[in-house]
Amino acid sequence: MLTNGTLLHDPGVRAELANVDLVLPSLDAATELAYKKINRPTSEIDLQVYLDGLVQFSREYRGTIWLEVFLLPGFNDDEPNLRALREVIDRIEPQQVQLNTLDRPGTVRALYPARMEQLEEYRRFWCRTDPHHRASGGPEPGPGLPDRYRIGHPGNHFPASLHPAGSPQDPRAPCERNQQVSPGVGREGRIVAEEENRGVFYRAIPENSLSFDSI
User: What pLDDT does residue 160 have?
Assistant: First the structure.
């Protein structure tokens, strides 16, 4: 079960997930500023309630948790944010932590993904400061050493690519919903097509274009 985790504070939601074998919740930030910049939550969502919900779910749940952590250069990859994230990870105690980064066009032009060497640096930082690793007395973690921190690779979670489903460029199974886009939407200027390394993507154009000044 993939979830952004924002409803895990609800006992009813946690009960519904009790019999699921594997849950993959998201954790993008553990500080207020990074959370607001990356997730832009509605006023009803409180960061601490969200984090406490993740922790409470992990205490009650008897299945496997693979925590997906989204890292974005300049937003949540400095040492204070990495340490805050790791503290929450320690409270959740997932069986695996997958480090992900931006894999499709961002809502703000200046966004860019972490390079693979940056992800490896984050992983090594967390391994060095992870109490499970310290307790094991293991060597300095390297790419081939078993630990709970894994680097996600582009393509693990496919964004809304506009290659026709089932085409050679589309690695997914056929999916009709991505095969067509209403011509009227493009003519009216509400979306634009963008060519990226992994294919063509559509970007919605809001009435008031987003910028860092509005964050």
Answer: 40
Distance CA 52, CA 93 (A): 13
**What's the length of the chain?**
215
- Rounded Cα distance between 98 and 150, Å, is 5
Report CA torsion sign: 189, 195, 198, 199.
positive
- pTM of the complete model beyond 0.85: no
Cα angle 1-89-123, degrees, rounded to a multiple of 5? 100
Q: For 116-181, give the DSSP string.
A: HHHHHHHHHHHHHH-HHHHHHT--S--TTS--SEEE--TTSS---B-SPTTSTT--SPP-GGGS--
Burial of 42 (0-12, 13-18, 19+ CB in 10 A): exposed
Residues forming beta bridges with residue 201, ordered by sequence position: 161, 194
